[in-house]
Amino acid sequence: MQSVCPSRRMALKLLGSAALCSVIPGQAYASRSTKGSRFLDMVNLHTGDRFEGDFWHDGSYQQAALDGFNYVLRDHRQNIVAPMDLRVFDILFDLQQKLGKTGEIEIISGYRSPHTNAMLASKSGGVAKKSYHMKGMAVDLRMPGVKLADLRDAAKSLKAGGVGFYPGSDFIHVDCGPVRYW
């Protein structure tokens, strides 16, 4: 795993993320006890921050990788890093597996602070006031080389949570809440 933007500042932010994530043990156990690794590669389109790595290996989530992904998925408007629900990473990985696609996932939005969510909701009717983004349970994304409708259909077929389709804004929303579609 590596970060493309290594710097003292990022290291301090990642350490802060680790402190926030201390509620998750260094090796949180996965619900499935299978062998192997699960790899993700993400870029935040608003900040340019990137991180790639194995977030799960032989039945255990890998805290160092989770910290890196949590940083990429942070609320960039408030610069707040929060722990994402582990199921979000599983959904992203399963989505790539379903599509037979590896490579970078483009992130439009991950965690949102209540302040940021309220600001966005005041400007758009498409932002839920009680958004799963505020719970670290949702990601807005797209994948280069994958048609948006195919990405939506693959996400729906997982039946892992909510799936929103936003073709006008060129992204889909996935979350690990109840199964529903819009």
Automatic annotation (TrEMBL):
Pathways per UniProt: Cell wall biogenesis; cell wall polysaccharide biosynthesis
Annotated signal sequence range: 1-30
Metal-binding listed as a keyword: yes
InterPro entries for this protein: MepK, Zn_M74/Hedgehog-like
Gene3D superfamilies on file: 3.30.1380.10
Presence of keyword Protease: yes
Domain of life: Bacteria
CDD domains: Zn-DD-carboxypeptidase_like
Cofactor(s) recorded in Swiss-Prot or TrEMBL: Zn(2+)
Keywords, comma-separated and alphabetical: Cell wall biogenesis/degradation, Hydrolase, Metal-binding, Metalloprotease, Protease, Signal, Zinc
Family stated for the protein in its record: Belongs to the peptidase M15 family.
PANTHER family associated with the record: OUTER MEMBRANE PROTEIN (PTHR37425:SF1), PTHR37425
Protein name: Murein endopeptidase K
Gene source species: Shewanella submarina
